[in-house]
Amino acid sequence: MTAVRKFVDSSALADLFDLPHAFKGRKVEVILLPVDDAQEEAFAKVDTSRQESFPQFTMAQIEEWAKAPEIQTLVGVLKGAGLSADISMTDIRNERLAERYTA
Known about the structure:
The protein is α+β, with helices and mostly antiparallel strands. The chain has four helices and two strands, in the order ββαααα.
């Protein structure tokens, strides 16, 4: 898929988007991806005005969950695995599935 990535001043986008206050007066990254009609229709059906449909977590909750033993056992597991710097999570998943399901 072809994409365009560019860093621009947020004031250049102010007429196109309602930017969060934190973006004003800063450089922002813009990524453009082509869409087909089906993707556009699906996006139009999403009701973004209903904030209650998205979970809201506090930093205290996230920090507490990060201390859980299940999470702590995962911390750093990929860092020391000797993976190349450009590998994606999809590549890792495919590798693991290939190891598991090949005889």
